[in-house]
Design brief:
- The protein is of the alpha/beta class and 373 residues long.
- The protein contains 16 helices and eleven strands.
- Helix 1 runs parallel beside helix 3, helix 11 packs antiparallel against helix 12 and helix 13 runs antiparallel to helix 14.
- The longest helix has 17 residues.
- The two termini are 36 Å apart.
Length: 373
């Protein structure tokens, strides 16, 4: 039925595409449901500025449109919902002082905030890889449906960034120290575990998604409760992997204990002193991450625990611009995405060398350049 099936009417996208070029995002109506389809499967539906500029105004329009009852966001290709933002383009822009380095983050965060405060049911079908920018398009919405193909991570500390797109809001609100653990290590959650962790609200088997989408579209003037009931019905029929325990089950209390510290250095010390296989593995993971990113992320989640999503996004915009001014983001993108040598040379190269002053500087107000929501 999607994308572009008989029951959907195309909304003309702002710039005319020539017939042979696939639009990067499809914005359609199916009955009284609005449907956003991420449509760059070859690049795992990576989110770029032109997609943000198509999705945002349309979401605003649908929010007040009496003919639209709910919004579904989904993806084409079957492999990824959205593997993240197009950060390679952002670092290229940063090197030459192009405004994309500000515009991308600003407009992406405004979109995240719109999703977080949306007044109509918003259902994200995260059937596949969902990382970074893809998490921002889904996690703040009221309903997030994971499948056995969902692969979730916030892997930003490995590229000299931080878990942005509102990570400072949703991560510290996961149980115990789970969010801090996911944020610092970039640990990947799969399938049903994405729901068990609290990132997704529901779990539905991938083969049932077309039927779920059809029934969502058929709902008449649905309230949140109606949508919730439908999702629960589908979830009850999905018992795949239900007998498998949560991947971190055995480690939940270890995570809470080891990641309880007033500093990243303290966490590393806890992990090294613990000596268990699990602790050793986490210490080894953290040793590969950008020390600056780890310290920024630690403080971001600490502060974000008590802030609204709006205030978190204002803080994260400041951090994004600090990363654009710094060294590690460029170096991380080079090592992981461009040269793929996986050997970033971080500067500073140790946690001890990242001073409190350097961290404070990243959180400082940008004055009139601050994000305003």
């Amino acid at each position: 039925m999607f994308p572009g099936g008989a029951s959907t009417s195309k909304i003309s996208v702002s710039h005319q595409m020539s017939s042979h070029v696939e639009p990067e995002v499809l914005l359609e109506k199916a009955g009284r449901a609005a449907v956003i389809t991420m449509n760059r499967p070859k690049v795992l539906n990576a989110l770029n500025l032109s997609m943000i500029r198509q999705i945002y105004p349309q979401l605003k329009k649908w929010e007040t449109d009496p003919e639209t009852d709910l919004v579904i966001i989904r993806a084409a290709g079957g492999k990824a919902f959205c593997a993240g933002g197009d950060i390679r383009a952002v670092t290229e822009a940063g090197k030459v002082g192009d405004s994309l380095a500000q515009d991308f983050f600003r407009e992406e965060y405004i979109l995240n905030n719109t999703i977080g405060s949306y007044r109509k049911p918003y259902v994200a079908i995260i059937d596949g890889i969902t990382m970074g920018g893809g998490v921002g398009l889904s996690v703040h919405g009221r309903f997030r449906v994971a499948t056995e193909k969902t692969l979730f991570a916030m892997p930003e500390t490995a590229i000299g960034l931080f878990p942005d797109v509102g990570g400072g809001h949703f991560l510290p609100r996961l149980r115990g120290k789970l969010g801090l653990f996911l944020a610092l290590t970039g640990f990947r959650l799969k399938g049903r575990d994405v729901q068990r962790a609290g990132v997704a609200t529901h779990f539905v088997e991938s083969k049932k998604i077309p039927d779920l989408e059809k029934e969502l579209v058929d709902l008449k003037s649905p309230s949140d409760t109606d949508v919730s009931r439908l999702l629960e019905t589908f979830q009850k029929q999905s018992d795949l992997d239900s007998d498998k325990p949560f991947v971190l089950d055995k480690h939940v209390s270890d995570i809470d204990r080891l990641f309880s510290s007033s500093s990243v250095e303290g966490i590393v010390q806890n992990l090294k002193a613990d000596g268990s296989e699990f602790a050793k593995k986490q210490a080894e993971t953290l040793s590969r991450m950008s020390p600056t990113s780890l310290k920024i992320t630690f403080r971001q989640l600490q502060a974000g625990a008590a802030l609204s999503l709006q205030d978190v996004l204002v803080m994260e915009y400041r951090l994004s611009q600090a990363c654009m001014r710094g060294h590690d983001f460029y170096e991380g993108v080079r090592a992981v995405l461009i040269d793929k040598d996986q050997s970033p040379r971080w500067s500073p190269s140790t946690l001890e060398e990242v001073s409190q002053e350097m961290v404070d500087d990243c959180f400082a107000s940008l004055g009139e350049k601050d994000l305003s929501l």
